[in-house]
Amino acid sequence: MRGVRSPSLKAHVPSLIVLLLALPAAAAPPIRLPTEADRQLLIDLEGCRPAIPPARPPEILATQADIDVQSYDLSLFLDVANERIEGVNAISFVTSSSSPAADELVLDLDSNFLSVTRVVRDGVDVPLASVTHASDVLRILLAPAVVNGAPASTVEVHYEGQPEEIGNGFGTLRFETHAIPPEPLIFTLSEPYFGRGWWPCKDEPGDKALVSVHVEAPDTLTVVSNGLEEPSAVGRPGHRITTWTSRYPMSTYLVAVSVTNFATWQDSYVSQDGLTTMPVPYWSYPELEAQAREDWSITPAAIDFYARRFVEYPFLEEKYGQVSIPMWGAMEHQTATSYGAQLLSGDHRFDYVVVHELAHQWWGDLVGPTTFDSIWLNEGFATYSEALWFEGQGGMSAYLGYMRNLDRLPWTGTDFEGTVHAPGDARLFSDTVYRKGGWVLHMLRWVLGQPAIAPDPEVLMPVLRSHAAEHAYASAQTSDFVATASVVGGQDLSWFFDQWVHREGRPLYEVGWTAEPQQPTGFVVRVRTRQVQAGPTFRMPVNLRMTFADSSTRDEIVWQDQSEQDFAFPTVEAPVSVAWDPDGWVLKAVTTIDIDQDDDGFADWLDSCPLVPDPTQADGNGNGVGDACEPGIDFDGDLVLNESDCAPADPQAFTPPPDDALIFVARRAPGFAFTWTLPPAAGQRQPVADITHGLLADLLTSRSTAGGTCAAAGVATPEWLDPAPTSAGGDWYVVHAWNGCAAVDVGDTPLSACR
Q1: Domains identified in the chain, total number
Q2: Which of 244, 434, 586, 589 has the fewest CB atoms nearer than 10 Å to its CB?
Q3: What is the structure's pLDDT at 665?
Q4: Alpha-carbon distance 477 to 206, whole Å?
């Protein structure tokens, strides 16, 4: 109801219990983390969601906004033989709080395949001359007008037709079959704006209303819908009228009907206060019952888990059911999730889909989006809830691994496209909304959890609980969540959401480090970071982890918010590695850069002679140029002045090593050994060698060794054994010598092949 419940609905909305209980160990269902192949299978086979209908003119939207729907009472007759429907929808409404009066009721209804046959207002027929139905908009003149504060008025719309199949079968109401011999199967899918394809309604997510559905179908079939089932009634010959009634308001895209010869069974869930036992029913095709029983068996434990993490299950007076329909994917219809029969494998492969749709009962159904610009409050939250579930099963390592698996860049090579908020029609159901949206909550947990290295999930829960309590059984938009997070988090978080929700991209970090020796002992670890992505910089706390020779680690949290930033940390020992956000709390990409070209421990910008290693940093004349670089000085005492010495700090290297040796080999067995002769120059040490390798056939074709790969690096003796078997046609090797001087490439072997 546009963010605020109507007083007439309050009696139907139980209060939410916010639970602050410690989480005991959950029941032990099978743990099967989804692989990227599992996810890609679902993405590939689900296909594209349907295109969103063209935007309606602003005046239509404005007129529709004058109305606040209180309830829908929908009756459907399913003519299975002819794949047609007949319907009557009684819409009870008042004027919205911002409108003084409404002289027109504007509804959404497909005008190509559905026809309006009669309209009745408060028991009196409305002349069809006062009704227009075109461009999927149904306009009914209200005479007299409905004024603000007046009792609710009710309009009945009678209609019939054959619903249109939209968007690869995703939208509206469909007549299908399953099993052999075929059994009738009727089901609906309405997200985002396809409720209008099978029933007249105000098809906007922000106007929630109570819904009752009466479906007249063949009496051999079972009808499933939202809410609780009421006593059935006898319909036309061979038909039964099944009624489902919701005690909680819902958005139109969450209303659903599924009909076939379902196999059915039931579990139960006991509320956190122990006072209510709620049914957890299941409906599957009979031929898939065994697989469904196994795959859905985690449901009661998952309800309990989320009720403890978030707030009590929000539809406790009704149910949480799952029903199979023919789709790749699933849909979070309120209290009755539609679950793709194609996903029922019996091996828990798609547990993440089961818990994703369940989490929507909180994020999407309890709190819905005011508009679909904020759809990430549904999909990003439910995707993050998947990670919480697996964290509950497998601990922090399972959680962090799950989040890493949600980042598309490592497995596609491309980044998330568009923005999380207002992604645009083409990306409404993209992985930017789902996966990056989930990462937003992951990173919010990291920010709110500072200075912890591994923040507990409870750090984030007060924000989510407050969001649920403030907008329960109503709607919210991104700005509402930002405000809640800032208040509960105790800080203005607009900067966080601006960069992660309203902007595209991620930080592309370049990171380099060195351990600078100190006198008389110790080191200073210096780290330089850069952000090189296009556009503004990102502001985030980042964990920097130093690992030492004894495998001990030291973590330092730094705030990185500049295009280039340096950090320094005194240490007793030099670390063997420095990692930037090693646990993956920030959505990013990292490239390593060299900030100490001569490897003497001094960062280039602090090194008196950046290209010559000199741990002493001697500068005899104090001019800022180190003695190792100063002309006219023989720094290493090898009787060669610096300007003529290719290794000014190495007394045993002052000229490059001899030429490379190119060796051709044709062999048929592993264990081939060969030697080479690369004598040192007078007064210098024996050079060491890098060995590159390639195929003779490629060499004969390209006349170049540029395609070689590194077979061995830093070989200190003039012999080497290759344990690998020969390739067809023979092999070549280049022995490339180097010493304290820069290696000289005398052939066409690339220096980058090994060193």
Answers
A1: 4
A2: 589
A3: 66
A4: 9
* Residues 580 and 489 reside in one and the same domain: no
Output the CA–CA distances (angstroms, integers) from residue 556 to 522, 570, 572, in the order listed.
18, 12, 15
DSSP-derived secondary structure letter, 26: P
Cβ neighbours of residue 122 closer than 8 Å, sequence gap 6 or more? 153, 154, 155
Least confident of 1-5, 345-349, 509-513: 1-5
Q: Which pLDDT band holds residue 13 (cuts at 50, 70, 90)?
A: very low
Residue 554: other Cβ atoms inside 10 A: 14
Classify strands 523-531 and 137-147 as parallel, antiparallel or unpaired: unpaired
User: Which residues neighbour 387 within 8 Å (Cβ) at sequence distance 6 or greater?
Assistant: 399, 402, 403, 406, 438, 442
Instruction: Kindly report which listed range (21-35, 313-327, 403-417, 740-754) carries the lowest average pLDDT score.
Output: 740-754
The mean pLDDT value for 448-470 works out to: 97
> Among candidates 106, 78, 238, which has minimal Cα distance to 163?
78
Query: For residue 180, what are its two tokens?
Result: 């052999």
CA atoms of 417 and 427, how far apart (whole Å): 8
Higher pLDDT, 377 or 627: 377
Tokens representing residue 494 in the block: 């607009």
Q: What is the pLDDT of residue 79?
A: 98
Q: What percent of the chain has pLDDT over 70?
A: 90
Task: Say how far apart CA 676 and CA 658 lie, in whole Å.
Answer: 12
Non-local (6+) Cβ contacts of 496 within 8 A are 443, 444, 447, 539
Q: At 734, is the secondary structure helix, strand, or coil?
A: strand
Q: CB–CB of 225/215 below 8 Å?
A: yes
Spatial neighbors of 249 by CB under 8 A, at least 6 apart, are: 1, 5, 9, 12, 13, 208, 209, 210, 473, 474
Q: What angle do CA 404, 565, 577 make, to 5 degrees?
A: 55
Q: Can you give the CATH number for the domain in which 735 is found?
A: 2.60.40
Tokens of 13: 């909305």
Q: What angle do CA 44, 49, 52 make, to 5 degrees?
A: 160
Tokens of 495: 């900067």
Q: What's the pLDDT at 693?
A: 85
Question: What is the extent of the structural domain holding 543?
Answer: 508-595
How far apart are the C-alpha atoms of 355 and 29, rounded to whole Å? 12
Please answer whether residues 754 and 736 qualify as being in contact, where contact means their C-beta atoms are separated by less than 8 angstroms.
yes
Question: Residue 1 pLDDT > 60, yes or no?
Answer: no
Rounded to an integer, what distance in angstroms lies between the CA atom of residue 422 and that of residue 419? 7
pLDDT score of 3: 31
d(CA 404, CA 406): 5
CATH, residue 212:
2.60.40.1730
pTM above 0.90, yes or no: no
In a domain, 191, yes or no: yes
Q: How far apart are CA 721 and CA 656, in angstroms?
A: 26
User: How many angstroms separate the Cα of 407 from the Cα of each of 193, 383, 411, 435, 703?
Assistant: 29, 12, 8, 7, 43
DSSP per-residue codes, 433-471? IIIIHHHHHHHHHHHHTTT-SS--GGGTHHHHHHHHHHT
- Considering the domain boundaries, does residue 165 fall inside one? yes
Residue 216 and residue 226: Cα distance in Å, rounded?
16
Residues 508, 537: Cα–Cα separation, whole Å = 9
- Boundary (domain end) residue, out of 295, 327, 359: 327
Give dist(CA 653, CA 646) in Å, integer: 7
